[in-house]
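U., I forgot to send this yesterday:
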Amino acid sequence: QKIEMGDYDSLDQDFDSQEIEKIAHNAVNATFSENSVYNKDKVNVWCNQVIDYCIKEFIKLRKKFKYSVTCIIMQRNGAGLQTAGCAFGDANKDGMLSVQMATNTFNCIVTIFAFGI
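Result:
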């Protein structure tokens, strides 16, 4: 779906971390349940489902942002997992947040970068 610049809502163009975080949580909850079990053959599909869900919901917000979404799914096998992110920009117009979810067999980390345009 192509959206022109004039199609965006002109009000409330600040980064709303609660709104974005809710979408990310909904994406994860729509993809996984507490009983989901790690399956290496499904990891790519799961990642794509989470990312697609987020992007489609962000478009519905009709805000002037560019979004970048990453999804990491790692099997819980005793190995450590550490991730970090940093972004520099306008504190009101840009933002970054991360949502984490864990089951007994895997961890999922979704990171979202939003840049006002």
